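USER: Study each token:
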Amino acid sequence: MNCELALLLSKKSGFLKRESSIVTFFKDEVLVTVITKSKQKELFKQKKEDIKNSGGGFIKQTFAMTNVLPEYMAKIKLMNKEDIKKENTTSILKSKIEKIKFTPASRSVDYDNGGSSQTQGKLILYVNKEKIKFTHPYEDNTKEIRTYINNYLNY
């Protein structure tokens, strides 16, 4: 069974600490895969070696690092449910989710100074009277994510 939606999110994990997570939505459950620091190091090291082996230099290696986590999310999205569960993953049954709240990220432009800034969006899962809070960079201008999440518990 393939996932219907996958999001690369961030979650507070302590005082001034955040951890990256991939939340994948399936028809019957939501899987939260935490990308630990050791996993990130492994992914970055592998990407660096791949670029180096293909003849890329330092600059190419540096720019390629920005794609590591999105590429890992794309890989997770293509995996079947059982393989995802072998990663550092927590399973939340759909029946245990009481509510999901999605707020898109927003971008504001300062025309006087010529700059822009982005406010992170939020995804909150209400599970067993507990809130699991994530932040994300998705602006969702087409409202595809919001529509999916708003309808997720209804079918």
About this structure: The two ends are 16 Å apart (CA to CA). The mean pLDDT is 88. The CA atoms of residues 33 and 86 lie 10 Å apart.
